[in-house]
Amino acid sequence: MTELLSQLWTPELQAAFTVVVVLLVILYVLSIVWVVRDAYLRGSYWYVWAVVALIPLLGVIAYCLLRPPLLQIDRDEQELEIALKQRELMKYGECANCGYPVEADFVLCPNCHQRLKNLCGTCNHALDPTWTVCPYCATPVAGAAPRARRGARTPQPHQAAPQQTRQARPAPSERGGVQ
Ligand SMILES: [Zn+2]
Ligand SMILES: [Zn+2]
């Protein structure tokens, strides 16, 4: 029996055996390193998991089953994404007239056609009715919403003025006609 074993236990087999053992040891050490690093990245108690990982094979399997599902970076990213979505939502408002959701640069309410914004006469950007100057091209806003309506009426005196002058001109000729 021992003769048979010593015959089988050739130097080649010994070498192969040590290679396998060395590989297993490397794998074991690497598994511990991986568990510690992964647990650290996932923001869990990595030192606890380091102790668990010392149990060969079972430690790694236990960690794979119980580790937190998200990396810390992913979690931060998710929070950032939520914050971004909230900011995006803040860009939307409601039509003061009908409550329909409208975007910040909408000029009209698409639902009830209520005027929401003024357009800059120079660059055609949507302007808040309270602004007195266009922030895109620095053109003074002649018509913020209330002023725009007044502005539409104010040209009437200008139009009336030439009519007066026209009326004024025929007046002397009329006088001339009388004289
Ligand atoms: Zn509306
Ligand atoms: Zn402008």
Can you describe what's shown?
Mean pLDDT is 78; it is low at 144-179. The longest helix is centred in the N-terminal third of the chain and has 31 residues, at 11-41. Strands 1-2 form a two-stranded antiparallel ribbon. The protein has 8 helices and 4 strands, in the order αααααββββααα. It is 59% helix and 6% strand. It is mostly helical and 179 residues long. The protein folds into 2 domains: 2-73, no CATH class; 92-161, no CATH class. It binds zinc ion (2 copies). One zinc ion (ZN) is lined by residues 120, 122-123, 125, 134, 136-137, 139.
SSE topology:
Blueprint lengths: L1 H7 L2 H31 L4 H8 L4 H9 L5 H19 L1 E3 L6 E3 L14 E2 L6 E2 L17 H9 L1 H14 L1 H9 L1
Antiparallel strand pairs: 1-2, 3-4
Q: What is the residue-mean pLDDT, rounded to a whole number?
A: 78
Tell me roughly what share of residues is in helical segments: 55-70%
| Sheet with most strands: strand arrangement | 1-2
Strand percentage lies at 5-15%
> Please, what is the oligomeric state?
single chain
Poorly predicted parts: 144-179
How far is it from the N-terminal to the C-terminal residue, by CA?
156 Å
Give me the number of helical elements.
Answer: 8
Total number of distinct structural domains? 2
Rg over CA atoms, rounded to whole Å, is: 42 Å
Biggest sheet: strands, sense, closure? Answer: 2 strands, antiparallel
3D shape: rod-shaped
Give the SSE string. HHHHHEEEEHHH
Judged by helices, strands and strand pairing, the structural class is mainly alpha
Number of strands: 4
Ligand species: zinc ion
Domain DZANK-type: 95-137
Biased composition (Low complexity): 153-171
Pfam families: DZR (PF12773)
Region (Disordered): 147-179
